[in-house]
Write a structure and sequence with these properties.
Elements lengths: L6 E2 L6 E2 L8 E2 L6 H9 L6 E7 L5 H8 L6 H25 L19 E3 L4 E6 L1 H8 L4 E6 L2 E4 L3 E3 L2 H10 L3 H5 L2 H5 L9 E6 L13 E6 L18 H10 L15 E6 L5 E3 H12 L5 E4 L1 E3 L7 H9 L3 E5 L18 E6 L12 E7 L4 E7 L2 E4 L3 E4 L7 E3 L2 E7 L1 H18 L5 H11 L19 H10 L1
Parallel strand pairs: 1-18, 10-12, 10-14, 11-12, 14-16, 16-17, 17-20
Antiparallel strand pairs: 2-3, 4-6, 4-7, 5-6, 8-13, 8-15, 9-23, 18-19, 21-23, 22-23
Helix pairs in contact: 8-11, 12-13
Length: 479
């Protein structure tokens, strides 16, 4: 896909975030354009799932609390958001309880009780079964802000590699080339290693028996494709991807090579990609859960099958709760970019190689969204930042034919999935160093201090540039 094919006509939908988390203004219909197309294709008697986003129902005092900078008030914010969701969803909940079943009468192979209503209160979202007619009825409800479809999600597939020269240097230096290139060890020397910070990790799971991850995972929960939490499920990795990204986030140096950016941070891991695949409902359920685990950073190296601009609402919710969103931009090369990394408010992360060049696979594009109502365009350039994402050495489960050190397994992988936890880990270090700073401030500082690369200015190969953690730290603590 070339750059000009990234022009997206969003005549039906435009997200214009106001920075508060309350009033994402969508010019046009409530129903996602992608969902409208899906509903038109449905045969009579078919049932789908609708993801419903509601407007906030809060008074001025509650709004002030939600916008307050004090991070200690997070539990109070959770309480307000849950109350708001309950109030906002009341009418639609009653509608489903009393009337909606009539829409499904005579439809074979449909169990309303099994595929009934699911609520995600911290996202002010409801998941419900729907027919085209029912979606129209729901859209008429005044407190329904948006309706979008479920869709497949998948991990952003990495590439295996094994460059001998880089291997030799990492063994010699006792640290991965990426951490050394970013001068992370200079930040550690100032006693900032991520202590007291909790990093959210939504991926394929994590292999906690790896010594580099021993004692690092403090919470874990797996979710079914329908978003059902699998309570009591043991901690495991259904693939290898999650263990590798977790290692880059918080891993140690059991191999003699330090792999983790924030080795003293704790990991909250949600399995939302079973064997590398999942659904949007699964991912949203993971986000709703992981928010309440008091995380300060969220690392997601996954991609949606289709662009969904309404996901902007969820990224804005993360920022409202002071959670730094580090999302992979994709491995499809220049002229492409993957959601949710291409959502404007997210920190979309691209990959560089050992020579500090944008990796050939690293996605990037200039996106334009045209609003026919306002007769104006919004332009987004992705990625936002670049970080090491080629030949990244990290932990993997023993099921992968990896590089063995003292009975433990490792692999060198390429991908923006590998770059993303570098940025998330840096955000964790900066959060520890400047706990009074909000997630938006940390993100802005990283953008302002990034080392420009490629074409002059903000471009679609490097974004604002290569992340410069030490410079960002200095700017934050001297502000």
């Amino acid at each position: 896909m070339k750059e000009d094919s990234c022009w997206m006509n969003s005549s039906l939908l435009e997200i214009i975030p106001d920075g508060t988390g309350f009033a994402a203004s969508w010019a046009g219909g409530k129903i996602s354009p992608e969902f409208q197309r899906e509903l038109r294709r449905m045969e009579k008697g078919e049932v789908t799932q609708a993801i419903l986003i509601f407007s906030e129902e809060v008074d001025e005092q509650a709004k002030k609390t939600l916008l307050a900078a004090e991070k200690e008030a997070k539990s109070e914010k959770f309480h307000i958001l849950k109350q708001s969701a309950e109030k906002a969803q009341e009418g639609v909940s009653e509608f489903f309880e009393k009337q909606a079943k009539d829409y499904f009468k005579g439809i074979k192979q449909f169990d309303f009780e099994q595929l009934g209503v699911k609520r995600l209160p911290l996202l002010n979202t409801m998941v419900a079964p729907a027919t085209p007619k029912l979606v129209e009825e729901i859209a008429a409800q005044p407190n329904v802000l948006g309706i979008l479809p479920n869709q497949p999600c998948k991990l952003i597939q990495p590439f295996r590699t094994g460059p001998k020269e880089i291997m030799r240097r990492e063994v010699r230096d006792g640290i991965t080339w990426g951490l050394k290139r970013l001068k992370v060890d200079k930040i550690w020397e100032q006693d900032f290693k991520g202590a007291s910070v909790r990093i959210g990790h939504l991926d394929t799971g994590v292999y906690v028996d790896h010594p580099d991850l021993s004692g690092k995972v403090v919470e874990f929960l797996a979710f079914s494709p329908q978003g059902v939490p699998l309570i009591g499920c043991p901690i495991y990795d259904s693939d290898f991807h999650g263990t590798h990204t977790a290692g880059t986030l918080v891993g140690g140096r059991a191999s003699g090579i330090q792999i983790g950016v924030a080795p003293e941070a704790k990991l909250v891991s949600g399995l939302v990609l079973q064997n590398g695949g999942g659904t949007l409902i699964q991912a949203l359920s993971g986000i709703n859960w992981i928010i309440e685990q008091d995380i300060q950073v969220l690392s997601m190296s996954l991609g949606f099958s289709r662009y969904e601009p309404k996901f902007e609402y969820y990224v804005e919710r993360l920022l409202l709760l002071d959670i730094f969103p580090s999302f992979a931009i994709g491995n499809a090369g220049w002229g492409n970019c993957s959601s949710p990394g291409n959502i404007s408010l997210a920190c979309g992360v691209g990959a560089i190689n050992y020579d500090s060049e944008a990796a050939s696979f690293s996605s990037g594009a200039s996106l334009s969204f045209y609003d026919k109502v306002k007769k104006s365009s919004t332009h987004v350039i992705k990625p936002d930042l670049c970080a090491p994402g080629v030949a990244v050495f990290s932990a993997v489960p023993p099921l992968l034919d990896g590089f063995e050190v003292n009975g433990n397994f490792y692999a060198w992988l390429d991908g923006t999935s590998m770059a993303t936890p570098h940025v998330a880990g840096i955000a964790a270090l900066l959060t520890q160093a400047a706990p009074e700073k909000r997630a938006r401030e940390i993100m802005s500082t990283l953008y302002q201090t990034a080392k420009p690369a490629g074409e002059m200015g903000h471009n679609n190969r490097y974004g604002r540039g290569i992340i410069d953690p030490l410079k960002a730290l200095q700017k934050l603590i001297n502000a």
